[in-house]
Amino acid sequence: MSPDLAVENGTVCRAPGAAAERRATVVIRGGRVAKVGTNATVPSDVEVVDADGRTVVPGFWNCHVHFTEPRWAPAATAPREALERGLREMLTRWGFTTVVDLGSDPRSTLPLRRRIESGEIGGPAILTAGPAIYPPGGIPYYVRDSIPPDVVDRVPQPADPEAAAAIAREILALGADVLKLFTGSYVARGTIRPMSEPVARAVADVAHAAGRRVFSHPSNLEGTQVAMRAGVDVLAHPPDTAEGVDASRVREIVSHGVSMTPTLKMFAATVSRSAAYLDPILEIVREFRTGGGELLFGTDVGYLTDYSTEEEFGLLERVGLDGPAILRMLTTAPAGRFPGAGPARLEPGAPGDLVLLDGDPMADPSAFARVRLTVRSGRVVYRSP
Ligand SMILES: [Zn+2]
Q1: Contacts of 28 (CB under 8 A, 6+ apart)
Q2: Residue 215 C-alpha to ligand 1 middle, in angstroms?
Q3: Is 131 helix (H, G, I), strand (E, B) or coil?
Q4: Each residue of 136-190: pLDDT tens digit?
Q5: Ligand 1 mean position, distance from CA 159 (Å)
Q6: Which protein residues have a CB closer than 5 Å to ligand 1 (ion)?
Q7: In which residue ranges of the chain is pLDDT below 50?
Q8: Was domain 129-236 assigned CATH 3.40.50.10910?
Q9: Which CATH superfamily is domain 5-57+346-383 in?
Q10: What is the pLDDT of residue 1?
Q11: How far is the CA of 237 from the centre of ligand 1 (A)?
């Protein structure tokens, strides 16, 4: 049973671009938004949170996470408190109420999701890719070391379209909601192995026939073009080997309707913050956006073990995004890509997911990282101390 909750006396921003409503109330009943606005009355039988003038926005999406750290391995049997702490540190403390897991072991992610959805554990909605699919011999060097040698051969690395389609069907049958490809894989530092286009296309065709989306890790121009031509829906990163990815190439990607999660902090934190490395990546994201491309918020946490979103918002500002544009990445853009999977706007009937923020993120996007309270389906899943 979802609890009922009212957040009153907040500055409510129902959606990107909507005018702020001061001293407004959001009432959540049975896990869904029942009333919003300055005239919304609070029923006598619900828990009430005083927002104290803080900003209330819809719950956030993170479209690039991983449940691969050791803490998730025993998710089927671990104590509730331990899993809730992990979810809080990595996700709900940063406002995320819906996440897309782009590669993990379904033996841990599926039980984790079941325990959240049963109401036992407070946490975000999880869409999962299950295991990622690689080119033959194409497990990235930074992943290979963490896989036991006897398991390496069983990691999906289809050699031809028939094998690829069979693997895609198998992963969907396990319970995956999306599929994840490495159309360009760093098999060694500075060495990228592409996936063949027919293999990528076979996976995309199976996914699309089942109404599912496909993400790809592209790495460079070739990996990006394989993804684009194969019909991939979302680039899980911009290509960070930026050679040849000029404005006209970026416009071509946009014209194919491909979305992108920028994951800028991940590049900065795990590779380099030098301008020589980072500026070309920022330029690709800038070009993608000014060309009309759709950006989805995603940080690669789980792979990245520093979970703070602060630097990502700062880098998105450097790319030229303002508060409403970033809120779009966090809410309506992903909700449009995954209809029914999570919140877009705070309006009656929508999922009862919201975030309470210190400050005004429309004027100062760093406020998106100052989360005071996170609510999913009417349940408080994070409250700042
Ligand atoms: Zn990732």
Answers
A1: 2, 4, 5, 6, 34, 46, 352, 354, 375, 377, 378
A2: 10
A3: coil
A4: 999 999 888 777 777 787 899 999 999 999 999 999 999 999 999 999 999 999 8
A5: 23
A6: 300, 303
A7: none
A8: yes
A9: Urease, subunit C, domain 1 (2.30.40.10)
A10: 55
A11: 8
